[in-house]
């Protein structure tokens, strides 16, 4: 558990950017915390890394830098995005330090739990096995899907900023970036199944995996509510949402708006 605690400390350090703007705890801080954990595992686990665990760490670094960099650029360069988000997300003004610390600690712990399957594998000294290889392939597929989704969305918004996106990957699922995210962490969790030792490691790994799945569905609900408000009167949008799954391609599940227990 010593290595897990070190990764938690790294997550706390890099997610602390949220004290400047609280939403960064779960956005920019999230991406760079995962990247830092990947780098930290390579440093702390040197001598115990197998080619498989090295690849897993590299995936964390690439994933985190891509996400954190994308969010940072969008935050600092997109005035239209910032003005829109002021209406969607609370500024955090007046939020007590105790509440900010609670968000910071819980977010950092989630990031450490999400990545802990790789942490536990390195700590145990175990090399690659079948499930690790399968998990790496799934995670890589998720990362590629997320990247393609961002590209398709940016291209569509450049062509028509005022229209909803239904091109590229958005033709088959309305939230391909969230689907890719879930796929990435599914691969991470699967890759650790043969190394979890005792109830505590299983609990931490499950907490990280189920936690990020919950966050993704909550994000999809928030997005659906916003899009319904912006495009609800558009007949093309209504046809799109009734025929295109919201989270998982080809699964006829079209809405999460009514599930109020999801974050929004």
What does this protein structure show overall?
The protein is mainly alpha-helical and 264 residues long. It has two domains: 1-127, no CATH class; 129-264, no CATH class. The chain contains nine helices and no strands. The protein has helices spanning 2-15, 28-44, 51-77, 79-88, 97-124, 130-159, 176-191, 198-231, 235-243. Helix 3 (51-77) packs parallel to helix 6, helix 5 crosses helix 8 and helix 6 packs antiparallel against helix 7 (176-191). The longest helix has 34 residues, at 198-231. The protein is globular, with a radius of gyration of 19 Å. The two termini are 34 Å apart. The mean pLDDT is 91.
Largest beta-sheet characterization: none
What share of residues is helical? over 70%
Mean of all residue-level pLDDT scores: 91
Q: How many helices in DSSP terms?
A: 9
Low-confidence stretches: none
Strand residues, percent:
under 5%
What is the SS-derived class?
A: mainly alpha
Total DSSP E strands: 0
Distance between the termini: 34 Å
- Describe the global form: globular
| Gyration radius from CA atoms, angstroms | 19 Å
Number of domains: 2
What series of H and E elements makes up the topology? Answer: HHHHHHHHH
């Amino acid at each position: 558990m010593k290595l897990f605690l070190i990764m938690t400390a790294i997550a706390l350090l890099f997610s602390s950017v949220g004290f400047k703007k609280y939403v960064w705890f779960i956005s920019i801080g999230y991406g760079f915390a995962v990247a830092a954990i990947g780098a930290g595992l390579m440093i702390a686990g040197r001598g115990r890394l197998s080619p498989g665990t090295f690849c897993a760490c590299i995936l964390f670094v690439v994933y985190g830098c891509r996400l954190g960099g994308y969010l940072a650029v969008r935050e600092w360069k997109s005035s239209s995005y910032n003005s829109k988000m002021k209406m969607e997300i609370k500024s955090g003004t007046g939020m007590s330090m105790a509440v900010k610390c609670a968000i910071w600690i819980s977010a950092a712990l989630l990031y450490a739990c999400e990545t802990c399957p790789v942490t536990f594998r390195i700590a145990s000294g175990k090399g690659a096995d079948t499930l690790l290889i399968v998990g790496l392939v799934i995670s890589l597929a998720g990362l590629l899907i997320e990247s393609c989704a961002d590209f398709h969305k940016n291209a569509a918004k450049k062509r028509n900023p005022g229209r909803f996106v239904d091109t590229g990957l958005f033709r088959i699922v309305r939230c391909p970036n969230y689907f890719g995210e879930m796929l990435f962490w599914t691969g991470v969790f699967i890759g650790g199944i043969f190394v979890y030792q005792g109830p505590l490691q299983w609990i931490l790994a499950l907490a990280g995996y189920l936690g990020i799945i919950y966050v993704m569905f909550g994000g999809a609900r928030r997005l659906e509510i916003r899009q319904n408000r912006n495009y609800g009167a558009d007949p093309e949008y209504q046809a799109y949402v009734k025929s295109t799954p919201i989270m998982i391609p080809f699964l006829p599940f079209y809405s999460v708006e009514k599930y109020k227990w999801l974050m929004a």
